[in-house]
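Narrative of accomplishments. A recurring question from our advisory board has been how the design workflow behaves on a single, concrete structure rather than in aggregate. To address it, we present the structure tokens for one chain from the evaluation set, followed by the sequence designed for it. No filtering or post-editing was applied between the two.
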């Protein structure tokens, strides 16, 4: 993604033309994961520019680490999806609740190969499952939301087996924390953070995690 800040500001016009993404309150998944004894699990989600995706999940209780990077490649140009690898405590935050937040406030799952002003397959909506349990929950949840017509358009989120994850350099980690006043962040990501706080108050943490 290594976009220059000037390019990010230029994209604001496109964002305004496309229209700001609205939060959609979605029901929790009907499918439940089996209770295990693991102290931490991993999830990999792609929902547009990793600046915002990482920044939102860093404010969710039960998450222990969020790393920004590319899944399935090293950049937007080689098939990689801008994504985050999340380490979370399943006794505090279920995988189902993680997906509920993902679909409700993190991104618009009906936008094909784009999110807001950002265009291309690198910005696709994608759930990379780590095991059969995650695959089942993700597939059944997407089907559940489509049946309920929660969104005005069909969900285009892909559900793929996890290939490999390539973290981006330190300068691109915690970008939302480091650049809170950047216009791109203010227009595209701050409203999502407000929605997280309002719609999921029990899952919201005021002090964000930081990459380490």
């Amino acid at each position: 993604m290594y976009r220059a800040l000037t390019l990010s500001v230029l994209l604001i016009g496109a964002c305004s033309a496309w229209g700001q993404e609205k939060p959609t309150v979605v029901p929790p998944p009907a499918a439940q994961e089996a209770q295990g004894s693991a102290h931490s699990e991993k999830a990999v989600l792609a929902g547009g520019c990793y600046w915002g995706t990482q920044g939102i999940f860093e404010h969710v209780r039960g998450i222990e680490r969020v790393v920004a990077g590319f899944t399935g490649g090293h950049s937007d140009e080689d098939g990689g999806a801008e994504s985050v690898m999340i380490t979370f405590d399943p006794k505090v935050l279920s995988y189902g609740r993680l997906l509920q937040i993902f679909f409700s406030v993190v991104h618009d799952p009906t936008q094909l190969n784009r999110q807001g002003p950002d265009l291309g397959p690198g910005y696709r909506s994608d759930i990379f499952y780590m095991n059969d349990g995650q695959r089942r929950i993700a597939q059944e949840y997407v089907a559940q939301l489509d049946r309920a017509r929660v969104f005005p358009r069909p969900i285009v989120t892909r559900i793929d087996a996890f290939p490999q994850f390539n973290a981006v350099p330190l300068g691109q980690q915690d970008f939302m924390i480091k650049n809170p006043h950047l216009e791109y962040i203010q227009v595209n990501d701050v409203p999502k953070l407000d929605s997280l706080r309002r719609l999921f108050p029990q899952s919201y943490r005021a002090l964000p995690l930081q990459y380490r």
